[in-house]
Specification:
Number of strands: 2
Helix content: 25-40%
Shape: elongated
Mean pLDDT: 78
Strand order of the largest sheet: 1-2
């Protein structure tokens, strides 16, 4: 956070870039993450009267979920 605060005080772009690279290097050295291996199965249930839901199988894109398929465009039919 100190480096980020220092970036905001710099006027020269070269200095900003140099400090940001320091932040990225710190991140690379100290951020450990283990990502998922393979596809993550998950189930999505949709009622028959739910409309405008993507027809693409959910498992064809591992990050697809109802939350990122434009739920504001979904609708429930009155039938």
């Amino acid at each position: 956070m100190d480096l980020y605060s220092e970036i905001k005080l710099q006027y020269r772009q070269e200095d900003q870039i140099r400090l940001f690279r320091e932040i990225m290097e710190l991140n690379r050295e100290h951020l450990w993450a283990i990502g998922p291996v393979g596809r993550i199965p998950h189930l999505v249930v949709v009622r028959d009267d739910f409309r405008n839901v993507p027809e693409v199988a959910v498992w064809s894109w591992p990050l697809r979920s109802p939350g990122n398929t434009a739920p504001e465009c979904h609708a429930i039919s009155g039938e």
